[in-house]
Amino acid sequence: MADIAKNQLKSDSVMKTGKFPYTFRAAWFLGLLGINLLVAAYYFHIIE
């Protein structure tokens, strides 16, 4: 029973902060990093 209360408290605190989960932010980070590296490769003529 205490585990359920602990999980509810955790989910409430995440909802109050308004921050996205780390997996979501990490996916955006990796996607934007990949695009950035692709643009840099075009810029330095590594990719034609």
Describe the model.
The protein has 48 residues and is mainly α. Helices cover 79% and strands 0% of the residues. The chain has two helices and no strands. The protein has helices at residues 2-17, 22-43.
Secondary-structure topology with pairs:
Elements (H helix, E strand, L loop, with lengths): L1 H16 L4 H22 L5
Largest sheet: none
Question: What's the average pLDDT?
Answer: 81
The helix/strand class is: mainly alpha
Fraction of residues in helix: over 70%
Gyration radius (Cα, Å) is 19 Å
Say how many strands there are.
Answer: 0
Total helical elements: 2
N-to-C series of helices and strands: HH
Instruction: Report the span from N to C terminus.
Output: 61 Å
Flag low-confidence runs. none
Q: Work out the strand percent.
A: under 5%
Overall 3D shape: rod-shaped
Put the structure in a nutshell.
With 48 residues, this protein is mainly α. 79% of the residues lie in helices and 0% in strands.
Overview features:
single chain, 48 residues, mainly alpha, 2 helices, 0% strand, rod-shaped
